[in-house]
Specification:
The complex is a heterodimer. By secondary structure, chain A is mostly helical. Helices cover 73% and strands 1% of the residues of chain A. In chain B, 51% of the residues are buried. The chains are: A mainly alpha, B mainly alpha.
C-alpha cells in the first residue's frame, strides 16, 4: 500500500465523523429559518464546543481502554467553581481561570491515581468519584447562581472579525496546546499502547502507568475547560445532577460517533470533536423540523443506540467464533 | 432449598465460617461498626422497630441489587437501572388507569417493561458484542426518552394499585413487612439458581472466562441474554415496589439506585470482573449501604455531604479489598 492509503485507513473514523457532521450541518442550515448566517453558526458552535471539550476528555481515557463516567460531574464542579472565582479585575479573573483549570486537573489526577495506582475498575471508581465531585459542586452552589466576568465571557462566546465564532478558535487552541503535544509525546504513545494491549506494552517497557495517569489527568483538565465555557455561556453556576449525567452520556456517544474504539488503542480526539458537533447538530435537527421538544431525549437516545450498534458490523469480519470473546 | 433463607443460612453457618470470604466478613464487620456508631448518636438506633424499618427500606435496594449481581457475576454491568426502575414504576401505575383488568395486570406489565429493556441490553451485549457499559447507557437513554414522551416531562398522575401498596407496605406475617419477605423470597431463589442449577454454574463460568465456557458447550450468548433480562425485570420490580411505597411513580426515582446497587454488590465481595462472589455478600452490602444512608440522614447531613461521604466510603472500601492484581 502507498503511504497515503495507510494514512487514510488510520484516519477513517475521523473522516467518517467529519462527513456525518458536514451532511448533518448542511441539512440543519438549509432548513433553518435564518439560513447559513454567522449568527446561526455562532450559536451552533457555542453549543457544540461544550460537548466537544467533554468528548475530547472522554477520548483521552477511552484510548487507554478505560472509561471516565465522572467527566460530566467534573464539568458541573468546575462550572460551580468558576461562578465563584472567575470574576473581578482582569488579574483576579486570570487567577480564577487558572484555579478552575487546576481543579479540573486535580479531579482527573485523583481518578487516574485511583484507577492506576489503586488498581480499581475505571467504571466503579469514576462513578464513585463522580458522586464526590457532584457533592462538592452542590456544596459550592446549593442553588443556581453566581456570576462571571462578562467581558471575558462575551469575548469568548462572540465572533472574531464578525465572522468566526471565538469558541471554535478556543477549541482549536486547546487542541493545539493539549491534544497535539500529548498524542505525539512518549506518554501519548504509551496511552495508545496500553489501550491496545497492556501486557505487550508492559513487556516492551513502555511507561504505561505514567501514560495512563497523564491521560486521566488531562481528561479532568479538558472537562474543566468545558466547565469554564459552560459558565461563559450561562453566566451562572448550577449543580444539576441530570445535566452532569447527560454530558457524560453524550460524551460517550460523541466518542463512538467520532470513530474512537471503546476497546481502546484506536481513534483520535479530532474525530471525537467532529462526533460531538455531529451529535449536537442531529439533536438540533428536531428544532428546525418543528418537532415537540419532548421528543428530544428519545431521539438522542435512539441515535446513541444506533451509533453504538454500528460497531457490531465488525462481527461480519470475524472468521473464528472464538474471536467473539475478547 | 425448601426452607426459608434465614433457615438455610443457619443450617449452613459452620461451612460459611470455614470458607468465609474476607470481603463478606469485612462488610459484616462494617455493619456492626455502623450500628455501634449509630447507637452512640441516638438511643433508638438499636430498637427492633427502627432496625425492621431499615430492613424494609433495604429490601427495595436488595431486589434491584439482586439483578445487578447476576450481571456483574458475568463480568458485565447494567447501567440502565435508573430508567428501568422508573419505567417499571410508571408503566405499572399507567396500567392501573385502564379498568379492573389493568389493575390486575399492573405489576406483571411493569415488570415486563423492565424485561424488555433487559432483552435489548442482552441482545446488544450477547449477540452484537457491544460493551455492556455502553449499550446499557444507551438503552437507559432510550427508556428515559420513552418515559419523557409518555409523561410529558412531568411526574405521572396515575397512582399505584392497592396490590402494589400491599406488597410494599403491608404485613402478611405480623411484625415483618411484606417488602422484606419479598426480598427474602427473591434472595432464596437467587441463591438456589446460583448454587444449585446449571444456569448458575454457567454464570460463574462465563464470568471467569467466556471463551472456556463456550468451548465447554455452554450457550453463553443465551445465558448472558437471560441474565440481562432478569436484571431488567428485577429493576422494574424494584420500581413497582417503590411506587407502591410512595403510592406513585416519579420522574427521577431510579437515579438514586444506580450507584448504591453497584456499590452493594461490589462491597459484598463480588468481583467487578465477574466469576466470583456470593449472594450473602450482596445482602451484607445492601444492609451496609442502607445503614450508611440512614445514619447520614439521621445526622441531617445535606445531600451534598451525603454524596461526598458516599463516594469516599465506596472508594475507600474498594481500595481495602476490591483491587485487581498487579500487572506482571
Amino acid at each position: 500500500m502507498k503511504d497515503w492509503r495507510y494514512l487514510l485507513a488510520e484516519q477513517r473514523g475521523t473522516l467518517l465523523a467529519l462527513g456525518i457532521f458536514i451532511v448533518m450541518f448542511i441539512i440543519y442550515t438549509t432548513n433553518h429559518p435564518a439560513g447559513f448566517t454567522a449568527n446561526v453558526v455562532q450559536t451552533a458552535a457555542n453549543k457544540g464546543v461544550l460537548l466537544a471539550f467533554v468528548a475530547m476528555a472522554q477520548t483521552l481515557v477511552v484510548i487507554t481502554a478505560g472509561i471516565d463516567l465522572s467527566v460530566g460531574m467534573i464539568l458541573l464542579l468546575t462550572n460551580c467553581l468558576a461562578s465563584w472565582l472567575v470574576v473581578g479585575t482582569p488579574l483576579q479573573t486570570a487567577l480564577g481561570v487558572i484555579a478552575v483549570l487546576a481543579a479540573g486537573l486535580v479531579c482527573g489526577a485523583i481518578n487516574g491515581a485511583i484507577v492506576i495506582y489503586g488498581r480499581l475498575q475505571p467504571i466503579v471508581a469514576t462513578i464513585a468519584t463522580g458522586a464526590v465531585y457532584y457533592g462538592i459542586g452542590l456544596l459550592l452552589r446549593p442553588f443556581p447562581g453566581g456570576s462571571v466576568n462578562e467581558d471575558l465571557a462575551d469575548a469568548l462566546t462572540g465572533k472574531l472579525f464578525d465572522v468566526i465564532p471565538t469558541s471554535l478558535v478556543a477549541l482549536l487552541v486547546v487542541v493545539l496546546v493539549v491534544w497535539v503535544p500529548f498524542s505525539r509525546s512518549e506518554f501519548g504513545r504509551a496511552a495508545y499502547a496500553a489501550g491496545s494491549s497492556e501486557t505487550a506494552a508492559y513487556m516492551s517497557g513502555v511507561p504505561i502507568r505514567r501514560g495512563k495517569f497523564l491521560a486521566y489527568a488531562l481528561a479532568g483538565l479538558l472537562a474543566s475547560v468545558g466547565g469554564l465555557f459552560l459558565t461563559f455561556f450561562t453566566y451562572t453556576g448550577e449543580a444539576a445532577y441530570a445535566s452532569g449525567n447527560s454530558y457524560t452520556l453524550f460524551s460517550i456517544a460523541a466518542v463512538v460517533l467520532g470513530g474512537v474504539s471503546l476497546f481502546g488503542g484506536k481513534g483520535s480526539a479530532i474525530g471525537a470533536i467532529f462526533g460531538a458537533l455531529a451529535f449536537r447538530t442531529i439533536g438540533d435537527l428536531l428544532f428546525v423540523f418543528d418537532f415537540d421538544p419532548l421528543w428530544q431525549p428519545l431521539f438522542q437516545g435512539v441515535i446513541l443506540l444506533i451509533a453504538v450498534s454500528l460497531g457490531a458490523f465488525a462481527l461480519f469480519r470475524v472468521r473464528n467464533r472464538l474471536e467473539w470473546f475478547l | 432449598m425448601s426452607e426459608t433463607t434465614l433457615g438455610g443460612l443457619a443450617g449452613r453457618m459452620p461451612k460459611f465460617i470455614r470458607r468465609a470470604d474476607p470481603a463478606v466478613l469485612t462488610a459484616f464487620a462494617c455493619i456492626v461498626i455502623l450500628l455501634l456508631l449509630g447507637s452512640l448518636y441516638s438511643r433508638s438506633f438499636l430498637s427492633p422497630e427502627y432496625l425492621l424499618q431499615q430492613l424494609k427500606v433495604a429490601s427495595f435496594l436488595g431486589v434491584i441489587a439482586t439483578g445487578m449481581m447476576l450481571v456483574i457475576l458475568l463480568g458485565q454491568i447494567d447501567l440502565s437501572v435508573p430508567w428501568s426502575v422508573a419505567a417499571g414504576a410508571m408503566m405499572a401505575c399507567a396500567a392501573a388507569a385502564y379498568g379492573p383488568a389493568g389493575v390486575a395486570l399492573a405489576i406483571p406489565f411493569g415488570v415486563l417493561c423492565g424485561v424488555a429493556v433487559g432483552i435489548v441490553n442482552g441482545i446488544g451485549v450477547a449477540y452484537l458484542r457491544i460493551p455492556s457499559m455502553i449499550i446499557t447507557l444507551a438503552t437507559n437513554a432510550v427508556a428515559q426518552g420513552l418515559m419523557v414522551v409518555y409523561t410529558g416531562g412531568f411526574s405521572p398522575q396515575d397512582s399505584a394499585t392497592a396490590a402494589m401498596r400491599y406488597l410494599a407496605t403491608g404485613f402478611t406475617i405480623p411484625g415483618v413487612p411484606n417488602a422484606v419477605i419479598i426480598w427474602a423470597l427473591i434472595g432464596a431463589a437467587m441463591v438456589f439458581v446460583l448454587t444449585r442449577t446449571s444456569f448458575g454454574r454457567a454464570v460463574y463460568g462465563i464470568g471467569n472466562r467466556e471463551r472456556a465456557a463456550y468451548l465447554s458447550g455452554i450457550d453463553t450468548r443465551r445465558i448472558v441474554m437471560i441474565a440481562f433480562a432478569v436484571s431488567g425485570g428485577l429493576s422494574a420490580f424494584g420500581g413497582v415496589l417503590l411506587a407502591g411505597y410512595a403510592s406513585k411513580a416519579a420522574q427521577s426515582m431510579g437515579d438514586a439506585y444506580l450507584l448504591p446497587s453497584i456499590a452493594a454488590v461490589v462491597l459484598g465481595g463480588t468481583s467487578i470482573l465477574g466469576g466470583r462472589g456470593s449472594y450473602l455478600g450482596t445482602v451484607a452490602g445492601v444492609i451496609l449501604i442502607t445503614l450508611l444512608q440512614s445514619i447520614l440522614s439521621v445526622m441531617q447531613m445535606p445531600e451534598a455531604g451525603r454524596q461526598i461521604i458516599y463516594g469516599v466510603v465506596i472508594v475507600a472500601m474498594l481500595l481495602l479489598y476490591g483491587r485487581a492484581p498487579a500487572s506482571r
